[in-house]
Amino acid sequence: MPRIQIGSWANDAVNWLRDNLDWLFNLITTVLNGLYNAIHTVLAAPEPLILAGILAVLAWWLRGLPAAVLTFLGFALIDSIQQWNPTIESLSLVLVACLITVVVAVPLGIWAARSKVVGGVLRPVLDLMQTMPAMVYLIPGILFFGLGVVPGIVATIVFSMPPAVRMTELGIRQVDEELVEAAEAFGTHPRRTLLRVQLPLALPTIMAGINQVIMLALSMVVIAGMVGGGGLGASVYNAISSVNVALGAEAGLAVVILAMYLDRMTGALNQRVSPLGRRALAKAQAALGGWKFLHWRPATSVAMVGVVVLALLAGGMSYLNKGGGAGSGGNGKPITLGYVNWDEGKATTYLWKEILEERGYKPKVQALEAGPLFAGQARGDIDVQTNAWLPVTHAEYWNKYKDKLEDLGTWYDKTSLEIAVPSYVKDVKTLDDLKGKAAEFGGRITGIEPGAGEMKILKDKVLKDYGLGGEYQVQESSTASMLSELDRALHNKKPIAVTLWSPHWAYDKYQLTKLKDPKGSFGSGDGLHLIGRKGFSKDLPEVAKWMKNFHLDEKQLTSLENDIKSAGEGHEQDGVRTWLKKNPGLVEKIAPSAHASYAKGKDAGKAPHIGYPAWDEGIATAYLWKNVLEKRGYRPDLRNLDIGPMWTGLSTGQIDVETDGWLPVAQKQYWDKYQNDLTDVGAWYDKTSLEIAVPSYVKDVKSMDDLRKHKDEFKGKIIGIEPGTGEMQRLKSTVLPAYGLTDFEVTSAGTSAMLAELDRAYHKKEPIAVVLWSPHWAYSKYQLTKLADPQGTWGANNQIKTLANKSFPDKFPEFHGWLKNWKMTPDELGSLEQDIQDAGKGNEDKGVEKWIDDHPGIVDKMAPVK
After folding, report:
1. Is the terminal CB of the chain with fewer CB neighbours within 10 Å at N or C?
2. In what order do the strands lie in the sheet with 657-663?
3. Where are the transmembrane segments (predicted)?
């Protein structure tokens, strides 16, 4: 039988509606958002216990004193388990959905009751609405209305409407026909007959239908949490996806309390608004006898006074508790961050939430499946996500939506996808080894979320390439469920195969084997990308710039994940804050503020004398510390000196500190002479080397021995630096004699003259031998060969140390502490030297400022102030 393309027709119909009725969906979105925001603002304004009191007064009015007490205790419990805000969000969503449902459903039920044709048409439509799986409504909801509360409200309305229509129709039809005929016989207009006879008598049945609407709406609200509906649905979804028993129990308990309250109150409302209900209530109270006081219910006017008094109290408290505005920078701009509930996604999302809040923005996070997340971004409902695995894992979503998205760059590279097994499973090292061993693994590969790109690659490609399709079943679950199953299997020493990826903390916690993929079916690995909606960079240029420069290494990422896991579900930002305390200055580095203000140091106002030689690393670090100290409120004084006077000044206290001591070799003679008057603060760079260098175009000169053989080519000359340096003295006393080069002339005009001579010779492609050292920016600018020293005459490698006068730690304790913990990498030092070179002589401060701007957070890292 030919296949009927119902699915394709439905897809085409949805696409046509989306493309041609977008104006209508935007209008509906605006109206529903407005209603939701209004109701949520009212409910969220009072303090939790004040609102619990208001709800308790309503319960007292509707059901009596025991119900009021239980209501207050129930909502107080919700507040104590930190589920108050999600509960209010869910209650707001239920009220909006039920309000619209009742407004639409009751007239439809009346119309169906009065017209058999309308009733006959509506019945199959209601059957379809009521029996269609609830989650199916979320799919067109996302496409038409995007993510958030609106698709949840719309899906809830559709799912919960049938009982209201059916019960209204049933209630109207069950009204005694003789009563209706009597009204008509007296000449009553049909409208008045409906309002004065049929509706009052049908009200108990209609209220029963409304009660069912509320119950169905609440159940759908939880499902709507999967598409960003928020509230208790989001809490339940997070608990399921992370297998968090504690959060699941708390969120589930809040749902139960809210459902019981709404059910009991709507059930009792009929007794207050229906004449028949009021008569039945009066009879019941008369029969209570001595227990009547427990079921006494205040008059409507008394209950209204109680509600108004509590509402006024709540309003006054809200006014008094108003806080200040948002921090500087973001000016309260909202940003929505979406994430799939994977460890690296959750970690980086909450990291950015914390950073953006510090910068004055109002970020909101939403946990979603991969499909809804990309679709929501394409619609513009989600501003940015941090965990797109490209170009492989999320290729399907990227190819579908890339015209409506922005790739903000890679913040982590490179990942891998794999199947992993416990290390105690022998003889299974590759994917090929899985073949024929299905019985050992229960014929199952434990997977993660069905929408994950890795799952699609596994099913569509990996299983086929390795012939595992008929042998293994892929069990879809969630990341947390997979990890729970892995933990259980490892505890019992049972074989298990799971979908995993790198980086992942599981490889640190467990002994696992990554199965090799010789056919490359999983691809070559992904980068973790930040993806923004189209127009994100234009709308939020500052945030986009921060995110484009954002990078974390594996150590930073795994430690962040660990701190968040330790903080527990619902306390992710506490984990982020713990991590940031361990990484001072990182916020400024990731998101540099436009007008950074620097805290003053404890010794602000002091004026240390900093000496430096005219060497690049000496100039660079001296001016760097000058800039940093000025930002901390110090008044440093720089002094440029030759090596000999520098050490003499340090020993006498005329110079407090210098940052360019090459020890234990290059400046050994000075250290041996003055060490009793000095303090070794510590090494900030390790390790250096001294050498002779020649241009790479000079062939056959690779070592010091080769230099002797080509003496004429170099005109018997070596271009040196300052005569007082330890390198020059060692060259003359040790290196040249060892290699028979004493007949070479060594010039000593200074470092600048040597570099100028090197540049001139390099430009003319002439041979030249110069005294150099590593690190030095000349190796980046020119193609040079370091001449090997097979006899080791240059001695052991040096460290670059900070040296100070003996009294320095006591005179400048804060500065001394900063210098003791200070380190620089070769890249940092090279880029600092280059920026100073580019700024030019006399503009060293400008070069340092540029470097600091390019290294946000470096001031707090070098000179932390609590």
Report:
1. N
2. 637-640, 609-612, 657-663, 799-805, 678-686
3. 21-43, 49-78, 90-114, 134-159, 201-227, 239-262, 302-320
Q: Which fold has domain 689-786?
A: D-Maltodextrin-Binding Protein; domain 2 (3.40.190)
Provide the pLDDT for residue 774: 82
pLDDT in tens, 238-274: 666 555 677 778 888 888 898 888 888 887 776 666 5
Mean pLDDT value of segment 587-608: 81
pLDDT in tens, 686-700: 888 889 999 999 989
Indicate the domain borders of the chain: 6-283+297-312, 334-553, 609-686+798-862, 689-786
Tens digit of each residue's pLDDT (9 = 90 or more) over 106-118: 999 999 988 888 8
Residue 330, Cβ neighbours under 10 Å: how many?
A: 21
What kind and span of H or E run contains 237? Answer: helix 231-241
H helical segments located in 492-571: 506-509, 536-539, 541-548, 554-567
Taking alpha carbons only, the member of 579, 529, 525, 507 closest to residue 412 is 529
Give the residues across from 412 on adjacent strands.
528
With beta carbons less than 8 A apart as the criterion, state whether 89 and 224 touch.
Answer: no
Burial class (CB in 10 A: 0-12, 13-18, 19+), 270: buried
Give, in words, the CATH class of 609-686+798-862: alpha beta
Intrachain domains 334-553 and 689-786 with the same fold: yes
* Residue of 143 and 728 predicted with greater confidence: 728
Supply the pLDDT for residue 314.
56
Which CATH superfamily includes the segment(s) 6-283+297-312? Answer: MetI-like (1.10.3720.10)
Alpha helix ranges (H) inside 510-615: 536-539, 541-548, 554-567, 572-582, 586-590
Could you give the CA distance from residue 367 to residue 219 in angstroms, rounded to a whole number? 19
Return left, alpha or beta for 243; rule: phi > 0 is left, psi -120 to 50 is alpha, else beta.
left
Sheet holding 512-514, edge to edge: 473-475, 444-446, 498-502, 416-422, 512-514
Question: Which are the contacts of 93, defined by CB distance < 8 A and separation ≥ 6?
Answer: 36, 149, 152, 153, 156, 221, 224, 229, 230, 231
Positive or negative, the CA dihedral 256, 259, 263, 266 is positive
Which residues lie across from 786 on neighbouring strands? 693
pLDDT for res 70: 92
What is the CATH class of 334-553? alpha beta
Q: How far separated are the first and last CA of the chain, in Å rounded? A: 77
Take residue 588 and report the two structure tokens written for it. 């400024």
| 613 φψ region: left (φ > 0), alpha (ψ -120 to 50), beta (else) | beta
Residue from 146, 175, 51, 35 nearest 101 by CA: 35
